[in-house]
Amino acid sequence: MFLQSLQFSLSVTLPTILMLLLGIILRRRRMLDDHFCQVASKLVFNIALPALLFINIVKQPADYSSQIWLVGAGFLSTFIIYFGSEWLAIRYIRDKSYRGIFVQGIFRGNSGILGLALCINAYGAMATAPASVYTACITLLFNVLAVITLTSSLSTGKLSLPRMAKSLMTNPLIIGIVLGLIVSKFDIPLPSSILRTGDYLANIALPIALICAGASLDFKQLKRFKNNQESQTQVNSIVWWASFGRLIVSPLLTIFIGKFILDLDPMSLGILFLMSSTPVAAASYAMVRNFGGDATTTANIIAVTMLGYMFTSSIGIFILKQLQWI
Question: What is the pTM of this model?
């Protein structure tokens, strides 16, 4: 049982870790640069990843109404983490401009790329459809909560609901999933040439995304802040506590809700853990920068959680497999 759990854990996390390491190595050997990562990331986000979600939903029809408890567990845990983080930020972070960075660093995981890759590694094609639905719903929630917390923390203006709605409705991932659900629900026939083209795009989505994620890690951003200045010490604490919340608190709370409150089946519980154990989404960096916040601190949180998840997710999967929960 021990060896089986260890083998399962490694089979789930090792492929994504190796792809991230490949990106780091290619960047260090100067085979990749920032321009390539930016262009490739746009290709993945706008074309390849939506194609992956669309094709998998169309090819793997499922009873999506049965996923309501899986999505509900994700929503409930996200809301608890969000409001708990907001309370901690207001209570302990004196500089208001860092509160939204701290909150987003805890609740916003990288479910669209790393989470989906982990689920496919763990359960194969049968997990793609429920994981895609979960990703669509949780991405909506992540975007709404991120805009709310960053607006209250970094912006002097009011929250624009029309702008937020437009941003959500034009999100390529959400569009791909909604179109896939429509085609699947109404059994709309698609030409084989369209499906094959979609397969080509889908097959490049996760490898390119993971390589670019590794290549985009800037370890120079992991600065050691001087201890003789109170503000710098606080920023350092924000990085480490946000990372702790993302990698430890979030998965533990999510698993507790899924197992003991909603009593999810093993695969759903596995999907829930794999999604909640991911590092901070890379999109959080762009959002903080767009709002005029401290992008360096956000980059630090992304880097720390990206490195930490390689260990915490593997250990978590091993423990859950030993307990026969997933």
Answer: 0.81
